[in-house]
Amino acid sequence: MPHVEINKPILEHNDRLAAANRATLSEHGVFMLDLLASPGAGKTSLILATIEQLRQHLNIAVIEGDIASDVDAQRVKACGVPAVQINTGGACHLEAAMIQRALAVLELEKLDLIIVENVGNLVCPTDFYLGEDAKVMILSVPEGHDKPLKYPGVFQVAEAVVLNKVDTMAVFNFDERQFRLDVSRLNPQATVFPVVAAGAAAGRGIKTWTQWLAARVQAKRDGAQQ
Ligand code: MG
Ligand code: ZN
Hints:
This protein is of the alpha/beta class. It is built from eight helices and seven strands; from the N terminus they run H-E-H-E-H-E-H-E-E-H-H-E-H-E-H. Strands 3-2-4-1-5-6-7 form a seven-stranded parallel sheet, sandwiched between helices. Strand 2 (60-66), helix 3 (71-78) and strand 3 (83-87) form a beta-alpha-beta unit. Zinc ion is lined by residues 3, 91-93, 124.
């Protein structure tokens, strides 16, 4: 995987741009969510299910980060929500400078929530602050309950963990009790939301997850109005 070694000056530069992004978002009372997951965990499916649940109450836009292609942005646009595609051209994570350019083309005064779909990768997106209000990770059941042990960093920065494809638990011998125990050891504050974002059992748990998200968005809007 092409990767520039992350050194301190690069991260400091990124953090300055991220702080500027955060200020721009706060000015408009817009909440930004950074979604982290492996490829295939169901990021785009969860985004679509989240939009479906919240679109009557909130104005939502999506920033799609992918190494190449715009297929995910097209799926989001097809449901009538603004979407900006960022192609990283090989880089395995988004950086604050890329988000800054995406924010410049969105009509922030019309938005309540921006969902960022980061590049599918559980490692380095963890290190890059984009100016988001929260990082949330998605783990899908087929990836296995041992992921908190193998990728502790992402579980430590995530405010919530969406556990997707829970309808396949029996097939994959997923030990939910062990999973929750390992998550809570790494991050006692993180809430786990078991969901099914797509397929025959789609919709399971989506309401509980979106209620959490909507409450966070509302809290930021209330703060901005004061
Ligand atoms: Mg996707
Ligand atoms: Zn990377």
